[in-house]
Amino acid sequence: MATSDHDTTTLADSYTETTRILMPNHTNNLGRALGGTVLHWMDITGAIAARRFAREQVVTASMDHVDFRGPIDLGDVVAVTAYVFDTGDTSMDVLVTVHAERPAENERHEAAASLFTFVALDADEHPTSVPDLACPTDDQTALREEALDRRRALAAAP
């Protein structure tokens, strides 16, 4: 993870990926991931990204319209990625995506996605300011634009 001063943090500083294998205790009677388990993994990964960005404790303020786009089957590799793509005074917007992978079949598909908002807390558990977001590379700018496009699409949906 790169280091930066407290006034500005890069998107890359927040980028987080967690990976696991979908085991039987996280599946439903069809052998697919429980939605609540996937949401839990998304919340944890998003919180890690927000904490890395703010360098403070964070709490989940909202989760905006979760899309489950495809199944995660028993034995699939589950990759959850998250990064801060926008900030307010004390809040951070985080894009969280979930991919299901079947390495033996060379398959990977997006299984879920959501936009989360986290609020940074100081030592007294009061909201505290967060750094400004910087995207110093084309890759970081492209990731931010992808997240902003998703947010615009959600806002335009009926």
UniProtKB/TrEMBL annotation:
Q: Which InterPro entries match?
A: Cytosol_ACT, HOTDOG_ACOT, HotDog_dom_sf, Thioestr_dom
User: GO biological process annotations for this chain's record?
Assistant: acyl-CoA metabolic process; fatty acid catabolic process
Gene Ontology MF terms in the entry: long-chain fatty acyl-CoA hydrolase activity
Q: Which GO terms describe its cellular component?
A: cytosol
Tell me where on the tree of life, at the top rank, the source sits. Archaea
Work out whether the entry's keyword set contains Coiled coil.
no
One Pfam entry name = 4HBT
Q: Which residues form the HotDog ACOT-type domain?
A: 12-124
Query: What keywords are annotated for this sequence in UniProt?
Result: Hydrolase
Q: Does the keyword Hydrolase apply?
A: yes
Q: What is this protein called?
A: Acyl-CoA thioesterase
Q: What species was this sequence derived from?
A: Halocalculus aciditolerans
